């Protein structure tokens, strides 16, 4: 019976070590790209959930992007009619968003806003201009409204705003598009 010599075993171990060392950076890059892709899918899911919730519950639902803090928040309109009961509000334009008696937070997503964060998230309008805050509101009748200034008025969504999720280390960009019908989708 013939076995392996110590030199042959050491040569195999060295070759495996070299292969592992060269594959490691690619593996790390793939894992980072997957995390950025997952973040883009979560943003897409939030917009879809907001639209579905609005249609299903009969209330206006707002998704707010705050670029300063890197937060997407979903809020549901509520109009208090009496101390015993609350009625859902179905109007995006007349709901005073941001007051405890007019809406409640449903969920939020937070992304790192520091330079060392893995993903940079930015919201851009149809002209490609980055917007610091964006409100997109869905009504129970399937209409979508947008405003790029919290103090401004809502206008019907007729363009396709985009959310870019950028991998800071590899440069890969995943884009979430929000068309006028409100059914967000991830660009290929």
UniProtKB/TrEMBL annotation:
<dbReference type="InterPro" id="IPR012902">
    <property type="entry name" value="N_methyl_site"/>
</dbReference>
<dbReference type="InterPro" id="IPR045584">
    <property type="entry name" value="Pilin-like"/>
</dbReference>
<dbReference type="Pfam" id="PF07963">
    <property type="entry name" value="N_methyl"/>
</dbReference>
<protein>
    <submittedName>
        <fullName>Type IV fimbrial biogenesis protein FimT</fullName>
    </submittedName>
</protein>
